[in-house]
Structure prediction request, 457 residues.
Amino acid sequence: MNRKLYAMLGLLLILSLALAGCPAPAPGGGAAQPAAATPAEGAAAGAEATPAEGAAAPAEGVVVRAMLGAVSRDFDTAAVEYCAQETGYQIEVVNGPDSATDRLALYLQFFGAQSPDIDIMQTDVIWPGILAEHLVDLTPYVGDAIGDYFPAIIQNNTVDGALVGIPWFTDAGLLYYRTDLLEKYGYDAPPTTWAELDEMATAIQEGERAEGNPDFWGYVWQGAAYEGLTCNGLEWQVSWGGGQIVEPDGTVSINNGQAAASFDMAAGWVDRISPPGVVSYMEEDARGVWQAGNAAFMRNWPYAYSLGNAEDSVIKDKFGVVPAPMGEGDDARHADTLGGWQMSVSKYSANVDAAAAVAVCMASREGQKIRATVGSMLPTIGDLYQDADVLEANPFFEQLYDVFAGGAVARPSTVTGEAYNEVSTIYFTEVNKVLTGQQDGQQAVESIESQLQSLLQ
Ligand code: GLC
Prediction:
């Protein structure tokens, strides 16, 4: 769906919520009706409810409206039900768009209208600088529990001393690979370089097609012009030693041969080992091909792990995950982009205390444990990585702990602050043009550099 349409939908949603005082259809497609979780009987009366520290006592009839969803939508329900019970508030879920880029545009419309209709929203790890002025400082509501969270994310979410989001789950881009197919084609281990991936993907694709599956592809990933391509592109260029677009000291470093070569590499996959349509794929498009058993490799976030292993999944127990492969050159390395989402409360909410209590619960140890266990969402509380139930559901949490606990590569959102969304838009627009053959890697890095220099000067 294009951005203009979202803009219109956003306004309509705000208007309809304001006029009718009732939930409106989800703008992101999918489930149109908000799902409501009501506190269990007795909880509202306080019998079983244990409101989070710092929160006001639950008021009868208060409904907290939360804009959640995105690709983790399938896992929201159990934690939402738990928190309705725990806080005593009714929680109504309104789904937002899957695309982080479209979701940000929608939130900005809500905030621009100072709309009280969404109390809580999930906010991306790259947005604190952009959204801080519209978000409540949650420090008093989190209390001492603040020490439980990964300090780097707390720091990321703190703007001018205010904690504008409680770390809800973290994310790191991963390479998914089919263990059965690697074995079938005689490979002992997943690829550690892009060149190896290319070779394996080519051989497996040829073999599977020859055996009668014309829909089979070597490698699927996210190539659409949106925030997800910034994540993929950053992995490519960092893996080639091509810097981080804008360095932490503010230097615009994008114009270098390694970054350019990494974009050319990705363009070379399109319509060869990756479907031609990959240039408009987001996470769920890639997962659709992968989950149908039609790809040897996929780049995606951890949420795809539990879905791939679901009872009815054709690839159940047939895949593994490793860090993304390395590029070429002296500074080649494995690079996984840091992602993740926070629980934030809107300043325009009419029920800030209730909303904060729900946000605290959702991001609490138990709230995260539920989502980690059913949905392989990565916790932001370190000791959950030692929890037996969490590890049983996700053995890879232990193997990749170093990546999840700080080894992932951050997008330049802290250094560019409020300008980050424009930085990312320039970047993914130009990288997408390389993927679609409109320019080469060198032209892209030059164009990104000059646009960033005028934007950031
Ligand atoms: C995931 C990440 C988020 C990122 C988005 C891009 O949801 O957690 O940080 O911006 O993907 O598509």
Notes: The two ends are 33 Å apart (CA to CA). Residues 70, 100, 124-126, 171, 227-228, 231, 283, 301, 339-341 surround alpha-D-glucopyranose (CB under 6 Å).
